Amino acid sequence: MNGRWRVAAVMGCMWVASLLYGEVFIYRLPLWTCPWPSLNANQVQDSPKSPIRVLVIADPQITDRTSYGMKPGSLALWLTQFYSDIYMRRAFRTSVLGLEPEQIVFLGDLFDGGPFLSPKEWQESLERFRHIFDQSQGAIKDRGRKEIPMHTLPGNHDLGYEAVQTQIPEVVAHYKQVFGGLDYRIKIGGVEFVFVDAQVLDAAVADVANSSWSFIQEISKEKNPLPRVLVTHIPLYRPDDTPCGANRASPVINQVIMTPNYLTESSSTRLLDAIKPVMVLSGHDHDQCYHVHETTQGSFPEYTVGSFSWQQGNLYPSMMLLSIARDAQNSPSPEAVVASHLCFLPVQIAVYIWYGVLLIITILAILLWPARGLLLNSTQKFIAMLMNIRSSSGLKAKDEDAEWEMVWDAEGGMHLINKGPKTPAVPIGSSKTSAKRGTVARRTGHELHVDTILKLPMDTNRLSPSPSTILRSVSRKAHPLSVKIIQILAPILSLAGLNISLYVMLLMIDWTTL
To answer: b/e per residue, 19-50, with b = 16+ CB within 10 A?
Structure first.
């Protein structure tokens, strides 16, 4: 095995390790880095009184033709959709189901161009959503558990704001038919989750907002309610440039009037005073944010959860883990009712950057490996010649004035050919010709001279080259460039075949396994 193939073998091992980590094991990291939060120090997991585990996902926002203005049916759109979907499917299948939540809550923006898709395109997005968040495999099937309930909330990319909902009412009807109501509440353990279609609360047309506000006012009239968690897609009001905490990865997004990034101050205050939640959960921002709202009714912490997708402007996708008390009666504080922990998903772009760096390292290593590399081959042979000349015992003092020529054989070995002394040539019959050397007659001008040949120590097999050696030598002399290209491309193409096969296999396993 020559130098390039040895390098290819080493790089092949590095590629296999990198692909297994970047396509498989990296999605298992949240299982070790994201523990479920504890409500108290004496909490015992999996006991009858242990908290209920709720996992929160925000803005999967399945890409479509409206996402980046790509042409429908184009290869670019297909690749964008595939790599967006495979990331979320792997994260859900391994990270989410592996954490074994008992309930899953979606904070809206299930689709990207929901209101502007044709019925056929909308149905295709729905099928992709179901494929990504499929529970018929992984932890659920393997452990024989029941399917985890999933609760959804519409976002502005699902139904749009006021203008869209009034102009395209069939979009709202279609969403309700598939996912259920827009405003509702459910009881999980000892806590009530209140889902509100917040993007219509600031609508100028009263009829659009009346349904949601009526639902909120009805809840506010209840006496002695359970502790509540407010679930909304649009974040509540916060002043521009309000810090979002250490988990924020991008600049803070401020309010925009035409497409509001959060509710108005009046609507936010009215909503908080009516619900009085122990916690607010929101999405829409695509990045993490923590903010505490202060009203006359008290302080209300809000957690904005980052996008679950790596293609929505957030390099650090995330999800949130909630531990919910099974019995919240007489709870001393909100912290004893709901505990939260923000969990980050794999940074997909970092994986692809590493693949690119490893590709460059692989190509350079094969090209520049000293034993056979294009740039260092001549230097290596020259150094070897000097070392062999100095260590050879066959050279005598009187040979120092001779003329020498370097010759390489087909196997890469170097030989020195003595071209004779620098002094005038000696005729054949001269007594000065050394009897210890073999002689070869040659004619220069009108005189016949002798070339003295000296070979450095080498294997005896090289003294009588085999037919295959002679053929390789002839081939190299005839097509030296083509031989060099083949020697370089052969290990590179072999590595590419191995890596691409493994990569495609890992993709297809996650894409098709049920």
So the answer is: beebbeebbeebeeebebbebeeebeeeeeeb
Backbone angles phi, psi at 104, to 5 degrees: -130, 135
CB atoms within 10 A of CB 78: 11
What percentage of the chain carries pLDDT values higher than 70? 72
Burial 404-438 (b: 16+ CB within 10 A, else e): beeeebbeeebbbbbebbeeebeeeeeeeeeeeee
Report pLDDT digits (tens) over 486-495.
777 888 888 8
User: Is the model's pLDDT at 152 over the cut of 90?
Assistant: yes
Rounded Cα distance, 448 and 437, in Å: 17
Strand order across the beta sheet in which 318-324 lies: 150-151, 103-106, 52-57, 318-324, 338-344
Find out whether 240 and 262 touch, Cβ atoms under 8 Å: no
pLDDT, position 130? 93
DSSP 35-73: PPPPSSTT--TTSTTSPEEEEEEB---B--HHHH-PPTT
Give the position of tokens 């929160």: 56
SS3 of residue 106 by DSSP = strand
Over range 383-392, report the average pLDDT.
57
Of 295-309, 365-379, 388-402, minimum mean pLDDT range: 388-402
Helix (H) or strand (E) holding 164: helix 162-167
280: left (phi over 0), alpha (psi -120 to 50) or beta: beta
Q: In what order do the strands lie in the sheet with 184-188?
A: 184-188, 191-196, 228-232, 279-282, 298-304, 289-295
Averaged pLDDT score across all residues of the chain? 80
Give the amino acid at 181.
Answer: G
d(CA 49, CA 107): 27
Q: Which long-range contacts (CB under 8 A, 24 or more apart) does 472-475 make?
A: 472/410, 473/409, 473/410
Lowest mean pLDDT among 49-63, 244-258, 412-426: 412-426
Which DSSP state fits 309? S
Query: Tokens 């130098």 identify what position?
Result: 3
Higher pLDDT, 23 or 480: 23
CB 54 within 8 A of CB 324: yes
3-class secondary structure, 450? strand
Interval 321-374: pLDDT, tens = 999 998 876 666 767 889 999 999 999 999 999 999 999 999 888 887 754 444
Cβ neighbors of 74 (< 8 A, separation 6 or more) are none
How far is the C-alpha of 244 from the C-alpha of 304, rounded, in Å?
Answer: 9
